[in-house]
Design a protein that fits this description.
The chain is of the alpha+beta class and 95 residues long. It is 25% helix and 11% strand. The chain has 3 helices and 4 strands, in the order E-H-E-E-E-H-H. Helix 2 runs antiparallel to helix 3. The longest helix is centred in the C-terminal third of the chain and has 11 residues. The model has no long low-confidence stretch (mean pLDDT 96).
Length: 95
């Protein structure tokens, strides 16, 4: 299990979750990304990030609401192909 960042983070990108992550597994590229991403290989499932998110965009993988299930692969895919993931986010929520 890992944590997933979902739709409410898009265009908000509050970084309180980054500040509390003990393993620095939450990433983004300034000026390129519209949301933050949790690396499923680095996440230690500590849960420190979840209560810090002011827009309640962070969920355990098993608790992602049905309407945001697409964000589970989106988080993992960013670490493999950032441009394709950015295009997917734009498709999910056009600018």
């Amino acid at each position: 299990m890992t944590y997933i960042i979902a739709d409410p983070c898009i265009d908000v990108m509050d970084q309180a979750c980054v500040d509390v992550c003990p393993v620095d597994c939450i990433h983004f590229e300034e000026g390129k990304d519209r949301m933050l991403y949790i690396d499923p290989d680095e996440c230690i499932d500590c849960g420190a990030c979840e209560p810090e998110c002011p827009v309640e965009a962070i969920f355990t993988e098993e608790d992602v609401p049905d309407e945001w299930k697409d964000f589970t692969p989106v988080n993992a895919d960013w670490f493999k192909d950032k441009d394709a993931t950015r295009a997917k986010v734009d498709e999910i929520r056009p600018e």
